[in-house]
Design a protein that fits this description.
The protein has 227 residues and is of the alpha/beta class. It has one domain (3-225): Spore Coat Polysaccharide Biosynthesis Protein SpsA, Chain A, CATH 3.90.550.10. It is built from seven helices and seven strands. Strands 3-2-1-4-6-5-7 form a seven-stranded mixed β-sheet, sandwiched between helices.
Length: 227
């Protein structure tokens, strides 16, 4: 198989994940929500996308057992390596292209409601262009995909800032590479984002749409009962 979807994920440790949600919710609740996002997203991918290799790129390197417990042994695991997000993504792309991959897409776990067709579109356009990016409303991106390795895309980017998408576009233009941009989507980092997620899930549920977010919905239900 030469097509890979890599889900970047952190071990759900209180105080280490979704830290911008505290003190709105406790560090323990933030870790529980992070875990729910991860499990729901991976299950949604497994249930709806065929013909690709799904791999979880995890950190820290000693967290392998936790991720196997969360999503089972049918999902491959790959340890993230690098000092920042850019290095870790670059190293992952390089490793999978060295394995003979033809198309590689990386997503995170902060956008649990990300429509599956956006991911499928990314793989489709990579048959024609070398780079695809899915921007987020806060200036980052929820997805990046390559059909050939080019590590320079990740150089000199202000990771964790609102300039990530813009700076990435500038890098791509400097390299004179063709790019496809997917529709923007949102991720969940702040209390305002979390409230938007609640409203979005409620509206989609009332419309009869199957959002396939069992653990996230369960978490929000428990959270609401204590509001």
């Amino acid at each position: 198989m030469d097509t890979y979807l890599i889900v970047f994920a952190k071990k759900p440790v209180p105080g280490k994940v979704k830290t911008r949600l505290t003190p709105h919710i406790t560090p323990e609740k933030a870790a529980e929500l992070h875990e729910a996002f991860f499990v729901d997203l991976v299950n949604k991918i497994k249930n709806n996308i065929e013909g690709i290799n799904v791999t979880v790129a995890y950190t820290p390197v000693y967290g392998e057992k936790v991720f196997h417990e969360l999503v089972g042994s049918s999902v491959n695991l790959f340890p993230q390596r690098g000092d920042n997000l850019g290095e870790r993504m670059r190293n992952a792309f390089e490793a999978f292209f060295d394995r003979g991959a033809k198309r590689v897409v990386i997503i995170g776990t902060d956008s649990p409601t990300l429509p599956i067709p956006y991911i499928q579109k990314a793989f489709h356009v990579l048959e024609k262009v070398p780079i695809v990016v899915g921007p987020t409303f806060d200036g980052g991106y929820y997805l990046i995909g390559l059909s050939e390795f080019n590590g320079e895309i990740f150089n000199n980017i202000g990771w964790g800032t609102s300039q990530v998408f813009h700076q990435t576009l500038t890098r791509i233009m400097t390299l004179n590479k063709q790019l496809f941009v997917l529709p923007p989507w949102y991720d969940i980092d702040t209390p305002v984002d979390l409230e938007f997620l609640r409203s979005h899930i409620l509206a989609m549920s009332l419309s009869g749409f199957d959002i396939e977010l069992e653990k996230t919905v369960g978490f929000l239900g428990k959270l609401n009962s204590h509001d």
